[in-house]
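Cont'd.
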Amino acid sequence: MKLLTRQEELVLLTVFYLKEDVTLKEVRKQLIEQTGKDWSISSVYVPLDRLDEAGYLKSYIGEPSPMKGGKAKKYYEITDSGVGILEEIRTLTNTMYKKIEGFSFEG
Amino acid sequence: MDKKDIKTPRFSTFLLRRITPRKDTDVLNNLFEENFNEILEKEGIKSARRWYRIQVIKNGPEFISHSIQRRVSMFRNYFRISIRNMMRNKGFALMNVAGLSVGIACVILILMYIINEISYDRFHSNLDRIYRISTVMRPPGDMTYRKIATTDWPVGIILRDEYPEVEDLTMISTWANFSIKHSSRYFYEKMFYADENFFKVFTFPLIQGDPETALLEPNTLVITEEIEQKYFGDESGLGKTLLLNDSLLFTVTGITENVPFNSHIQFDVVISFATFRNFVPKFGGRDIWGNLNIYNYVLLRNGADREDFRSKINGFVDHWGGDIYNRWGYDIKLVPDELRDIYLYDKKGSSLGPGGNIDYIWFLSAVALFILIIACINFINLTTARSSERAREVGIRKVVGSERRSIIRQFLFESVLMGLIAMLAAFLFSMLSIDHFENLTNREYVFSDLISVKIIIIVLPSVILTGLAAGIYPALVMSGFTPLQVLKGAYRSFGRGTKLREVLVVFQFVVSISLILSTFIVYDQFRFMLTQDKGFDDEQIAVIGVYETPYASRTKYYQTFKQRLLSHHGISKVTAAGAVPGKGGWNGQFARAEGQPDNAGLSVEYIAVDHDYSETFGLEIVAGRDFSELHGSDRDEALLINETAAEALGWGTSQNAIGKRIESPSGYPRGVVVGVIKDYNHHDLKHQIKTIVFDINPAAMRYYAVRIGNEDVSNAMDHVRKTWSEIYPGYELKYFFLDEEYTTQYKDEEKLLNIFGTFASLAVAISCLGLLGLISYLARQKTKEIGIRKVLGGTAAGITKLLTGEFFRLIIIANCIALPLTYISMEQWLDNFAYRMNMDISLFLLTVLISLVIALATISFQTVKAATANPVNSLRYE
């Protein structure tokens, strides 16, 4: 199993959460809201691109919307293997926490 | 102000565009701009701009490291696929790399040679201002000018005094030929006389002693470190003395660093010119003209006009020397030669030191280039030929979504990688073959000559370029397939490359065949010269060099030495001479027949001999008589000439020449002709027989020639050795056998033969590798056709013919082009020889035969395998 970095994991989760037609801008907004920290554009883009290349995400260039002055947007969507890796990570984390005595993790 | 007009900061925008990954530049920049606009609305222009600028610093590092990682993983991917491809087709990859690496190895070696050659004399700090003054002259009766690196004696003196652009000038004379005595033995070192400016003009740093004064006084000399070590061991040699010529004490006034190998001026010992002036005072004035014996090296002033100087000294001799040369019918000029050109451009003969050969450099470069081209052709041919096999890979990749660009990159990367592997192998090859190359070029090389920055700087980019060039054609063709074509099988025909491949194969074989034929022709001419009757007897003659013994004892003991040798029953003749066959006498001596005007003279070769010269070498007297001890006056009066001289001096027949007088201003030759010697090839067969005059002149002897009877040679030589050490104790006996030494005149031709031979075999080998690759590809291509033919009753022989016929046609075409081309160029080469063989038709036939046999042998294995294969196997997968 390929491990993801924490950043990648969070980005992947966010895309999963936002479902379809997810843009970088939305992911970033969501992350800032959730974590309360400032995420630079590159710190969101790089994990997105890496996940894209690894096949956990797929991307496509959307039709330029007439309202926005005709500028193209790139959309991301989670793939089956992306969902798969999130499950694996969760299972792994759970198992490891369970091994620590007196600690129970409610999923 | 309208918000729409407010732009993001220009420089930061530019930076952000560069930094963001190319594929998503637009998307990302839109995002930055959107954010910028939001802040602009909320907080105003100032904070928006500040925010935007900060983004460059905040996002830059992450974007950049991401791009680098992507690139690395891309190349890792290319690399992995390339290696996988090579492994899948080991034979193909090996052939490809082997052929290319041999080509590159040739280039590396020849580059090394050239870099070595052009490095000569570059270490002098005044390089650009140093010139050697040479004499260019046309002897009476000649059509062409000859260049001599020396000048008349007064030239240097006058140049120094009368020409303000001359900052310094140093005169060098090579008339220093002394033994150095050391622990009761005599040694010879490279030495010459040079005046006190020697170390000002040239950059030969002194380790000890004062360069200004070191060569000022008579009987002083400067030695190199190596010589200091040899004669004085670990002690300093400065101020110590050396005994020269067994009679003269010299003080060491300076020690120089050892002379670099790449200097055309080579010395172990430099003797002060003042010494020479004491020995030979008569050459010190301004009025001794007619002897070209002194080297002058001039250091021009900074800013002096070279062209001006060149034209000023052109008529120097006529101006300062009067009309002495004109009176004798000579046309004479002085020219300045740039120091940087002396080594490479000097024609053999009079230069002070070793000389290179610019023609040779061009020739080698051309050969190396051809070999490299052949190798590249292989590379292209093999790659395109195999591309059809990879078409399926390309098709599938395209279906999966590869861009055309990335497929092109993959192919280019693969061929560059192959080139780089070949380069590494080439360095290995050149290291292994460096010994052979040293023989070819008569040079010694060290490891750092081979793996040097200069070579890598040239070779590495060329290899990458070669890889790109060889890969671009297949890359473009194959990346252009549509997946549909490929997967349907339409690529199988792949006819586009066929014509090109045929042309390239023909070119390869044109080069190979030309080299084979040239090798044969050079070999034939070489053998022709060796076996031709030279007109004298060269067997069983040992020649002793006596020019290193002191002059006085040489003349004094000659008769004793001769008689003692003759007392041995195995020795039949002994004679002395200034030059034995194969060695030059005094060339360019001026002579004319008595009664003729001064300007009717001509330049002759003067050879000093002893009485029994013609008998020892088996020369025939066609008119008159030989020198004789019975005629007492022969010693002073008599001359022998060859037939050519009798003709040239205007006497027509040999008989007519007898009793005639020859005059010469220098006195050499002067006397009465008593006999005419039948023409023989005193020099090599490259040149016509010269006009030679023989004179008895015991003072000018340089060799003793000993004819050994049919006795045991080593026994006779033992006697020679014993006698020598008794008469010239302490001097080393240096001798050679005439027949062997005479042959060394052809060492240039021998070298050429070796080079042709080596490169011809390489060219053939590489071309055959290519052929092998093509035929195996073709056989595989036609597997199905062959299978069907066999099922329908085709014979193995018929199928072999089908496969080989194609290539035979190509080889025949290559022969048709190569043979006439080689004939024309070799005809020109042969015309350089006074005695040349005529090209035999059999050489041409042999070449054709060899090219066909080699090609056939190369392809036969593959064709037979294909022809005898069981059709069941080849048709199975339909």
